[in-house]
Amino acid sequence: MRSVSPRGCARGFAVGVLIAACVVDVLYAGSDGTSVLPTASPAWPTLAVLLVGLAAVLWPQGRRPAWLTPQVRTAVPALVSALYSLGSLVTQKANVFGPAEVLILLCLLFLAVRHCPPRWAWGCGALDGGALLLLSLRPLGPLDAAVLGLVVAGLVLIGVVAGLAVYLRTMDYRRTLAVSETRRSERLAIAADLHDFVAHHVTGILVQTQMARMMAQTQPQELDPVLAGIERAATEALASMRRTVGVLRDAGDEATDRRPVGDLAGIADLTDGFASPVQQITLRRDPAVSDVLPHEVQAAAFRVVQEALTNIRRHAADATHIEVRLRGAAGRLEVSVADDGRGGTQLPSAAHGGGFGLVGLKERVTALGGELRAGPRAGVGWEVRAVFPEGKA
Predict the structure, then answer these.
(1) Percent of the chain scored above 90 by pLDDT?
(2) Selection from 264, 263, 271, 285 nearest residue 339 by Cα
(3) How far apart are CA 358 and CA 192, in angstroms?
(4) Contacts of 64 (CB under 8 A, 6+ apart)
(5) Which residue segments constitute the domains of the chain, with CATH numbers given?
(6) Chain segment 310-347, per-residue pLDDT in tens
(7) DSSP 3-state assignment of 386?
């Protein structure tokens, strides 16, 4: 048995009330024989106005033709109603109106203010509101308290409905902005993952491939460790890409495990994998550095080391010694990567990067309340230093 949602029940109830009100309007219009047009049925003009309004309000969204835009839906029925009201003045015949026409015009006002394009919303809304106020002309009576009461009531209804529509339209706009910002943040995060992980491994593959080519002529018997390093870097690069693609595909509960991650413990593996026969790397970790730091801080520290090592491969391939330090003091974590390179590199220009790594890294560190500095050392080489507030795990 198919269940019916509360929203569907409410919509069905509203449609039923509106149709019942239309029946009342038609019966009330034909009870005194008054009509603007000399037709066989005195209720024909009222019926025509109501049919146009009902079609505009109730036409199913999936079956609307292309020409039935929100502007047409909200403007045409209001024009028909306004012309019918003005016809009372031209023919000097009183024409009644009932609750259905009021409800239809209020619905059209709501649709105009909330869904019409910005350039049309206020114009179509004013047209619907004006048609609602013109209903008070149909009785052709003196401007007594009853007519003024109708005008005041109409103004109050217009203000309430238009205000509600403006509020909901504002909420829709804010929701759209929030969704766009969330998607942009996700794209930036995925781009950072691709840069930090895949670029790191691919740069390592490139460097080790160059080393293998040189060793093939001078030391062919020692090629196996280098080739093993290339294989390991390629495997890690594929794993990182697989995790990132898993995030893009939103693979259910497993997506959180596929997101590339890093922590303080992973820095040791990172440095071990970076070391080579011509580049020695030393990791010095202060015992005061806690293992229970917030994951965001640990991941950012890992990215700092990873980006610094990648830049050494790209821009300081002549460095012979690299030192990575993790220090903790006064509730702060300090991460630094220093090398003794002079800027020599044999990588092709396409592999040097566009300078976006440090920019994204600074944004990541700053977002956590930290500071990032990168520049030449006092003697020779380059140093990247980041300081994080340790926070609470």
Answers:
(1) 17
(2) 271
(3) 11
(4) none
(5) 6-141 (no CATH), 262-393 (3.30.565.10)
(6) 888 777 778 889 999 999 877 889 999 999 887 765 55
(7) strand
* Pairing mode of beta strands 332-339, 382-389: antiparallel
Quote the longest CA-to-CA distance of the chain. 111
- Which are the contacts of 299, defined by CB distance < 8 A and separation ≥ 6? 261, 262, 263
Q: What share of the chain is helix, strand, coil (3-state, %, to 5)?
A: 65, 10, 25
Question: What is d(CA 1, CA 20) in angstroms, rounded to the nearest whole number?
Answer: 29
Both tokens of residue 252?
């259910």
Question: Closest Cα to residue 87, out of 126, 36, 26, 49?
Answer: 36
Contact between 393 and 294 (Cβ < 8 Å):
yes
Strand pairing class (280-285; 321-329)? parallel
Amino acid letter for position 263: D
User: Beta 371-376 vs 382-389: how paired, if at all?
Assistant: antiparallel
Q: How far apart are CA 251 and CA 33, in angstroms?
A: 68
What global pTM score does this model have?
0.50
Q: Which residues of 336-347 are buried (b: 16+ CB within 10 A; e: fewer)?
A: bbbbbbeeebeb
- Taking residue 356's Cβ as centre, other Cβ atoms within 10 Å add up to 12
Task: Give the whole-angstrom CA distance, residue 86 versus residue 90.
Answer: 7
Look at residue 167 in the predicted model and tell me its pLDDT. Answer: 93
CA dist 290 and 297 (Å) reads 11
Output DSSP code: residue 237.
Answer: H
